[in-house]
Amino acid sequence: MSRPPLIKSLLSGAAAMLALSVGGPAAACSDLPNICAANAEHHRQMMDIAATPQQGEPDDGGARYAEPPADPMRDRMSVATGMIALMQQNVDNMARRAEIMKDPRYARYENGGWDFFQDHAKPAPGEYCAAFYWKKDGLVRVSGPGGDYEGALLTFWSDDIPQPVGVEKIKVTLVQSDGSPPQTVEAYNYRLPGEAYGAIALAVPSVEALLDNMLDTHGFELQIKGKSVAKVDWTGGHAARDRLKQCVARRARG
Description:
Layout: H1 36-50, H2 72-89, H3 94-100, H4 104-111, E1 113-118, E2 129-135, E3 138-143, E4 152-158, E5 168-176, E6 183-190, E7 198-204, H5 207-212, E8 218-224, E9 227-234, H6 237-248
Antiparallel strand pairs: 1-2, 2-3, 3-4, 4-7, 5-6, 5-8, 6-7, 8-9
């Protein structure tokens, strides 16, 4: 028996979406909508830390400043968008492109692949589990629960996705490679400070529902008012699903 389309089996319009405040600190929120404010405060605190001289050193203009904790997702986005920009800037410069092809990042750009991590500076076991797939200009992440958030998200990035000042709830049309009819669903559109691309996140009621319906090979295209704004085709979806299940299984249940 064939499975239903991934998103069709998970999203039922607005009923599947989560409440989200779209003002104030939500502009700096992560992909977990109900911790937008907390994440914005965390971002502010990290910037304060980065602007503070390390202990015992005078602020004399030459002091070394503290580094904020690593941001796992931003680090990976920087690698991906940096390579994409290099390829786009040198599209007609064959000599330069030949040099870029020697860069270790190029193999990932050309062939695609998954990164697995917990998307938080200090995650508890099994929380904020994430799998990020990147190939050329296709970027997508599958991520699971963290904190009080019990759901999961399927998040896309691209240069064509709008970059609103805050977080906006928008309608997008999702086209999948399995031949199912296009579906128009509600999604969240935002851009985190410092990131090059806008993002669109589709909320799913539970991580189990998302993982159980992941296909090994799957393609997605997002359209806004008939215009294509993001497109990605992943491979290795079953291996990614299994890695995420292992991560989520370590989460403590209340």
